[in-house]
Structure formats: structure tokens, C-alpha cells
Design brief:
With 290 residues, the protein is of the alpha/beta class. Helices cover 30% and strands 17% of the residues. The longest helix is centred in the N-terminal third of the chain and has 17 residues. It is globular. InterPro entries: SAM-dependent_MTases_sf.
Length: 290
């Protein structure tokens, strides 16, 4: 799937895309069971209340890939807080959609699958409270990100959010940007702590808006360097386990001035959230206005 090129109109689309056609191009589509478990657990914890209170519990998994397993898992996990959650998996490849539809019974509750891109066209006038777009923009150019974000945000329900990010193949390293109707709000970093060498390893899985910004002078580089330094200093705490070491490391980072969201339970699970302003690039998508 490809991000639409920036345009001043409210519904930008790539040059040459016919009106009404899905905004995007087919991606590699790699997926695996449980790959997105970390973001799903975070969604339940951080946005479960919003989903529970939504008048229309509509959720979109955008660009789910060659196999719909992550869509099914998302629906199952969100059903814990909202049993009637309505999850739609959107893909631009008709063959992937047909294969996914063949695996579900349309007469039973469960996720639905349609052809669609960043415009979320199959939803019509309905507005999702949550959009998950993982391992999609990673395959784009950096300059395509801002327009994709804008198009997704324009379709959200009031108070809705987009989580756009990436992870490694087994889902052990992940990061995502949280966007609402006004723009990017925060960055979340997540690790499988068992066997973690250093927190900075997540740099290889930063969202497209940040992955090229892990260089001296950029804010996200400073955050990852601070986490690595704290992790090294808290090595003795590692005798109590990786969870205690991560909690102590994040607490140290907070002490030196990084505005990490206070969530000690999340830290122990290997999840850290910071305001977007703390890591926003100096230029490019998500950069503060000059």
C-alpha cells in the first residue's frame, strides 16, 4: 500500500489513482501468529475504556498481509472489553481479501474483510474508533508518511486513534506512533525483555517517520541513548530479573528529564510511552512547525 501524495484538498490521493480506487499499493504482506500481541495488549490497557464507551465499536486493521491471523487475534483480544466489537480487515490485494473471506463464516460474529486502503473506503460514512496499521508504512518512503497519516486521521471517529508502527518478525521488538484527529500524540516502544541485550535495539523497528532519525542531534536518538545508558547502569538490578531492570532503567531516564508516561506496570512489561514532542524529528513528517 502506498501513501497518497500531499495535496491541499481534504482527501488527497496518489497521482494517477482513479477516484474511488483504494489509496495504496500491495506490500510484501509478511505476517505470523502473535506477531502483534504487544500492541494489542497495550490497546486493551490504554484504549479499552474508549472502545467500551464508543457508540459504534468499529475497529480497522489496515494492511493485514497475506494471512488474516492478526485480524482474528485483534478481534479476540478487543472482545474482552467490548464483546460486540466490529473489526474490519482491509487490504488492497483482492486475492488476500478473497482468501481471508474464505476462512470466516459470514453468518457468525467475527471480523470482516474488504478491499481498501488509507481512505478506508469500504466503511462508507462510518468512522472507526481505532485503526491499527502495522508494518505498512515501513515499506514506504519517508516523504509519503504525512499524507497517509492525514488521510487516516480524517476518517477517525471523535476521540479515535490510529496506531501506526512496525515490529520484527516474531514481535519481540516493536514501536508505534499514536495519532488522533489533531496529529501525532505519542511514541510507544515495546520489547520482549527476556534475552534483551539493550533497549536501543528497537531502533531497527522504529516507525518510518523516525527510523532515519536515529542519528546524533535528533530527539529519538537521545532517548534511545538514554535508555541504553540507564540499562547499563542498572545491570546489577538484573539479578532480580529483566522486568525489574527495565523498571529501574526507565525510572532513571525519568530522573534525568525524559517525560516518560508514568506506568511502572507497563515498564515491567517492556512498554514505554513518551509524548511525540519529546521525539519528533527536526524535519519531515511529524516535525513541529517552524
Amino acid at each position: 500500500m502506498a501513501a497518497p501524495s500531499p495535496r491541499p484538498d481534504r482527501r488527497p490521493r496518489p497521482r494517477g489513482r482513479p477516484a474511488g480506487a483504494p489509496a495504496g499499493r500491495v506490500t510484501r504482506g509478511t505476517t505470523a501468529p502473535n506477531r502483534l500481541r504487544r500492541v494489542d495488549r497495550w490497546l486493551v490497557r490504554r484504549h479499552g475504556a474508549s472502545l467500551r464507551d464508543a457508540l459504534d465499536p468499529l475497529v480497522v486493521d489496515l494492511g493485514y498481509g497475506r494471512h488474516p491471523v492478526t485480524v482474528v487475534e485483534l478481534a479476540q483480544r478487543l472482545a474482552v472489553v467490548r464483546p460486540d466489537v466490529d473489526v474490519h480487515g482491509l487490504e488492497i490485494d483482492p486475492e488476500r481479501v478473497a482468501a481471508a473471506r474464505a476462512l470466516v463464516d459470514p453468518d457468525l460474529p467475527g471480523p470482516r474483510f474488504d478491499i481498501g486502503g488509507f481512505e478506508l473506503g469500504p466503511l462508507g460514512d462510518r468512522r472507526p474508533v481505532l485503526v491499527r496499521a502495522f508494518n505498512v508504512l515501513r515499506q514506504y518512503e519517508e516523504h509519503e508518511v504525512a499524507a497517509a497519516w492525514a488521510l487516516l486521521r480524517s476518517r477517525l471517529a471523535p476521540g479515535g486513534v490510529v496506531v501506526e508502527g512496525t515490529c520484527d518478525e516474531p514481535g519481540r521488538l516493536a514501536s508505534w506512533v499514536v495519532l488522533d484527529g489533531t496529529g501525532p500524540r505519542s511514541l510507544v516502544l515495546a520489547w520482549r525483555l527476556a534475552g534483551l541485550d539493550r533497549p536501543g535495539a528497537v531502533a531497527a523497528r522504529l516507525p518510518k517517520a523516525l527510523i532515519h532519525r536515529n542519528v546524533p542531534g535528533e530527539r529519538v536518538h537521545g532517548l534511545l541513548a538514554a535508555l541504553d545508558e540507564a540499562w547499563e547502569r542498572e545491570a546489577p538490578v538484573g539479578s532480580l530479573g529483566a522486568r525489574q531492570r527495565m523498571r529501574a532503567s526507565v525510572a532513571r531516564v525519568v530522573e534525568v528529564g525524559w517525560p516518560v508516561r508514568h506506568d511502572p506496570a507497563g515498564w515491567r512489561e517492556g512498554v514505554v510511552e513518551v509524548p511525540w514532542a519529546a521525539v519528533s524529528p527536526l524535519s519531515g513528517p511529524g516535525a513541529p512547525p517552524r
